[in-house]
Amino acid sequence: MIPAIDFSAPSRFASLPPRSSERFARPRVAPSPHGEQVRTEDGRELVLRPIEAGDVAAMQRCFTRLSPEDIRRRFLHAMSELPAPMAQRLCRIDPALETAYVLMDESVQPAEMRGVGRIYVDEAIDSAEFSVLVEQDWSRLGLGALLMQRLVDDSRRRGLGELWGYVLLENRPMLQLCRELGFVQRMMPDEPGTALITLKL
């Protein structure tokens, strides 16, 4: 079970749950009128908030900064661009069946999207599929874990029984993160090189 962040702690910034790997630092989080202020150990700040319909351009700009490897790990196949209709669909979610959080860098104008995490609910099987992406220059700072924790919390709030996702075996940082957060990994015989990651809620 992943403990919730305790905003009653004396420190202005609360910490993520401890992890076994020292590769992941712990971003500090504090409430904000526009979301949650996140500060990484190297001093950079982001705003964690729900995705908005107006985030389309920021999402497309974020896509242009991804490496081909990042794109394949997130979308499980190669893509040269993020078409506007797809970006619009990703930003205009159905809150009854989807949750999406973004990490926005407001130190630049226009604000840039540095990470995104989302779930798609399948009511028929009482579960949700997750996906998480953090821009390479902001990776290994605990931001992926922060997004995953919010998705787990939201899935539990919805009363779902399981959270799951497909992860390429070469995506070792994500597999390690999921293990640290309590997910179980199973191989996919029909999909070589891909693992099914599940967390019972």
- The assigned CATH architecture is 3-Layer(aba) Sandwich
Instruction: Provide the succession of SSEs.
Output: EEEHHHEEEHEHEE
* Radius of gyration (Å): 16 Å
- Describe the largest sheet: 9 strands, mixed
CATH superfamily: Gcn5-related N-acetyltransferase (GNAT)
**Percent helix among the residues?**
10-25%
Helix-strand makeup class: alpha+beta
Strand content: 25-35%
Provide a brief overview of the structure.
Residues 46-201 form the N-acetyltransferase domain. The protein is α+β, with helices and mostly antiparallel strands.
Question: How would you describe this structure in keywords?
Answer:
nine-stranded mixed sheet, Aminopeptidase, single chain, 9 strands
Would you write up a description of this structure?
Keywords: Transferase. This protein is α+β, with helices and mostly antiparallel strands and 201 residues long. It is 24% helix and 30% strand. It has 5 helices and 9 strands; from the N terminus they run βββαααβββαβαββ. It has a 9-stranded mixed beta sheet with strand order 1-2-3-4-5-6-7-9-8, with helices on both faces. The chain is globular and about 45 Å long.
